[in-house]
Amino acid sequence: MRAAVYSRTGEPTEVLSVADVEEPHAGAGQVRVAVRAAGVNPIDWKIVTGMMGERDRPTVPGVDAAGVVDEVGEGVTGVRVGDAVFGQATGGAAAEYAVLSVWAAKPEGASFEVAGGLVVPGETAVRVLDLLGLSSGQTVVVDGASGGVGVVTVQVARSRGLRVIGTAGEANQEFLRSLGAEPTVYGPGLADRVRALAPDGVDGGIDTAGRGSVHDLIALTGDPAKVVTIADFSAKELGVQVTSGGGGQGPRLEQVAELLAGGRIELPIAGRYPLERTGEAYEESRAGHVRGKLILLP
Asked: pTM score, two decimals?
């Protein structure tokens, strides 16, 4: 099968190329899909560039995939060949075929591109909001609200009846407002700007960007335990909840599917790339300021 492959870490446009590799097959508890769309996440380029360790063998990158099931592994129930699903790939998503270890049914009205881009952002959004445990009517601040995870977090929070204050650059203020958030710019002075919008205080803070906002979020909530970050791993020393995954992805993806089916989540597609341009897609993600998600189309 055709796949994006790299055999050493480095600059994505230098180390990634398309090659014919052996097809993966579904093992016990897994399904294989013919990939229709694969989402690009920051973790992808971090792995390829060597930030997560060196690689010395041919590797297919990517985590998010949506496609049509063509193999069902032993012990799998509730899904059959021909079903459209989206989920997390084991062994790489940037390929014609991918094996999924966790998945949910793709709603009929949703495109493969949107579903393929929602796996990590959707699961992450549900996870961080579950960690905060906020109730309808409470206020949450989402730093980095126009990025892939932030966009979905705003919408999941709004679906739960939360008031959302979201941060983004000047160019994305109206975009955040269209998602139902009250926008403000990120950076120095964040706590003062949020206090002007919410003088009675905020109940939770989410850092999706790792730009040092956790101190402001702690000041706003008054309690580091009311702050969650997915990007600032040093914040654990401050008492902030740091999360990067864990179990329970399946039920969280099913929540995402329900919201998607009900029209409660929209995902802007910021760019579409063929496999031959995977390196360019990773470089665009690495540069930041992407509104929504970048998608690979095998």
From this structure: 0.94
